[in-house]
Amino acid sequence: MVLLSGAVRLLSSLLPAQAAGSAAHGDSGATLVLALAVILAAAKLGGHLAERLGQPAVLGELLAGVLLGGLDLAGVVWFRALTTDLTLDGLARIGVVILLFEVGLESTVSDMKKVGWRAFSVATLGVVTPWLLGWGVGALLLPQHSVYVHIFLGATLTATSVGITARVLRDLGRANSAEARIILGAAVIDDVMGLVILAVVGSLIQAADLNVSLSFLSIGWLVVKAVGFLFGALWLGGRVSPLLFGLTARLRGTSLLLVTALVFCFLLAAAAAAIGLAPIVGAYAAGLILEKVHYRDFAGRGEHELEELVKPISGFLVPIFFVLMGMRVDLRALGDTSHLGLMAALIVAAIVGKQACALGGLGGGLDKLSIGIGMIPRGEVGLIFASIGLGLMVHGERIVDAGIYSTVVVMVMVTTIVTPPALKWSLDRWDRRGRGGRGGG
Amino acid sequence: MVLLSGAVRLLSSLLPAQAAGSAAHGDSGATLVLALAVILAAAKLGGHLAERLGQPAVLGELLAGVLLGGLDLAGVVWFRALTTDLTLDGLARIGVVILLFEVGLESTVSDMKKVGWRAFSVATLGVVTPWLLGWGVGALLLPQHSVYVHIFLGATLTATSVGITARVLRDLGRANSAEARIILGAAVIDDVMGLVILAVVGSLIQAADLNVSLSFLSIGWLVVKAVGFLFGALWLGGRVSPLLFGLTARLRGTSLLLVTALVFCFLLAAAAAAIGLAPIVGAYAAGLILEKVHYRDFAGRGEHELEELVKPISGFLVPIFFVLMGMRVDLRALGDTSHLGLMAALIVAAIVGKQACALGGLGGGLDKLSIGIGMIPRGEVGLIFASIGLGLMVHGERIVDAGIYSTVVVMVMVTTIVTPPALKWSLDRWDRRGRGGRGGG
User: Is the CB of B256 inside 8 Å of chain A's CB atoms?
Assistant: First the structure.
């Protein structure tokens, strides 16, 4: 304990000095490389300890982040300050885009078609049920707030953050099982549905604030755009991608296969973002579309397989995302008791609501419990919803105040942290019953 | 021409809309992925065209950047705005750190020892001569400014930007020649010397502004710290690195070899930055230190060679650095005629001054002209010097005013752009004379 507090004091005295010592090359030069070294080391140590305890590495990375961020309670504020660093945030965002691209690469469009309708029914149930439950929780526990607050509170529970589940499934070698494709497919559809709900609820709130009514036409247009994007990307992308790789295979230069694939991924991510969806939706679609046959022209150039080329980039950037997500957890928010009831109710609504997904997993031979559990994490999407809510007002009433915001953050945190061990437990349970199978396609 | 202006207008109308279209996930989410896609595509197209013309790919990447940045003259300001994006800037800075690490990996400490004294004499001549020439240019052409302005102007000419040359040498398969090691070794020593000069000149200027004299002790301490870092890092690093890899080889998890190497690289970069040197000095030292024998414990784990693992990361990040450096060139600065004389004199001083390096390449059988040319680029280090000078004052006189700043920027740009073709020409000339040899160690 003496050793620990001594180490913390030493750290506290060293870090700001190191960060400020690089006047000649700009402060962030030193801060950035030091932060990357510490974050990557913490990620690998946390991941190792988690795996030693039989848990997925991602849980260790998240908790390593919570620990680093929580050092501010011991006076080391350096890591807390890093959570607002724009460069680290950018690296983390690229990391999650690359992760979804990599996960998408492991499946093909025809794999997805096999689970398409199941994923759609799973997603629909997994969006509507938590929304209604969250709405009800708001109406019961926040009667003093307007109905828009209740609708919005429900909406923060809708979108599944596929990053955590994708990572757990990949860590456990299940990224290509039928359950994985249903979960990931449903999470993508979820994200689309959640963002459509956000767009619609946001428009409703703005219209209510201006005392105008919203046309059904503009609501319909939002929905059409989102659904059209996915089908359009999968259809058009599958036709454009072979042409693109055929062209770039003729260029001179190095790393052309990797860079062409990254450009394709980033373009689809940007296209998704341009119509108001999450960039990761586009990245996942890009991964689904790309197949070996598209870049066979590169086979003779001595370049590695695309999966092998993307792995070092995700090995570098993905841990940054998860450690940073952990670091953003403010342990002080857990100490605020005034919203404990709402917090507990919201967590229950978030977890129970997604179990409705299991009902959508039609047909036998599927691990329905794991599907429901895999849909639990809200992650960054829930946080984005909450932060948008902070900026919305109806007749001078803030839709999401600081208390509700903290509550949503804790809900996101709990759903994120319970999922890896719960999913691992449920997948092991399924395996022990002898009904599981790796690699469904 | 009609087609081009139509395309520019289309781009102009599309880009801001796409960048602003992602309200739900934060503006920079869409901007970032779109920017990455465009920058990577431009880098590969520019690199292809340069190679088709027999030039190194890096020149094409730089000019692609100049072209994208220059689109603001046609009303497309999106790329100009990207040059101040903190995330892209961070990615570029990590890119150049990874590049120097990769270049360092291609040599060993004992390779460096063979060229050590030669590199030192090359570096010393290459620092002192341009400094004195730049000082003289300032005294002649800027007589109305104080002697501190002249000293500082000379100092902006000292540091070699090793990134460009390292890239050209690697593109041409010469990264392991004796000349390459002398140039890279000298550029690292140069950087140390340049930064020591910057620290000393900066301290002198601040002391003059406060009317106090600077102790020789504090000047000596700056020098000792810098020199001590390099020798200390090479000596200590070679002992610590096998222990570090031996430990991490026992951890559970994925990408452990890559991440351990990155942590080692970032820690040395941070240590260099902490004592006031450029992070790239630490990254290059880290690359020199790491040898296959240090991470032999990973051989049985089925991980690729370290060089193979770092390549996709540099393939992704390094082009971002060079395109961004090109984009930062403001073509309007070329239109300002008031400093044309100073500009021309400074460029001549910068280029001629570094040719003194050739005198330091003692012993026969060396391509001295290529060594002198390889030391020409000032790149980002010269820009950093100039921007620091913008903030320095003596008795109310700004050390670097807006006009001098533009002049230094153009000097940096010209030295950066002339080097790749000049170096390629001089290496080819050496080869044609039959005295060149690939792989000297």
Answer: yes
